[in-house]
Amino acid sequence: MLHLLARLATVAAISIGPASISATKAAAQSYPIDCAILLCLSGGWPASVPCTRARAEFIRRITPWPVEPPLQIWRCPMAASYQGNQDRISRERIYDTLFNSAPQPQVSPQSATLGTSPRTRRPQALTDHAQSSGMGNLQLAQGADIDISGSAFDFVRSIRVYNVRYAHQYNAGSEGGCMRTASIQLGDYGPQGAFSWERSSPEALPAKHVGLDGWGQVCPPIYHRSVFVDWRDARGTYGFEQVNY
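Now predict its structure.
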């Protein structure tokens, strides 16, 4: 089933190529952007107009300020996107949402199915902290409107966002030694695609992150702020982006 996600993304790239008819192009431009992000990310961001737009939006959302969930799966109406055979698998519904020319119903965030993990419901204090620290007006208890807990949607749960609000290291002098302070949040997705933040540390940053290479060493001066997102597509291929500010 994982191969079907990649195949649908490839079909998406072909279907909006130069040889496609104008009706298909018009339909492709009317898709919910988060359905496009979901489909294109699963297929490794194939070269196409919708996938180029989807990736640009994916990155725009983590570009300060505020920092938003790069994939907002609760905005992709998978359960109601296509009135057809109810036995069809969800990936085909995503494809229909993206390219079917019929008007698409909108699913409100409040109607999204919530995951069963405790992490899908965060204390109000953390919600307030996320809003006050420039992370956007996040709906931290939302998720997909269908069951995505199976392995076919592991690529959704692979997405991680590291918000390095600041990381400061400096030499305080011969008596004070090396001083280090950091404020880093990690955002990730629960079983049903609900997004949440938790505190993290410089040591937890992925190896591909650039800017804190000397952290914890012989105290070279460092002051760094960035947002780093990484993921794995449906085939397990690793990808990442970093935005410094």
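The longest strand covers residues 160-171.
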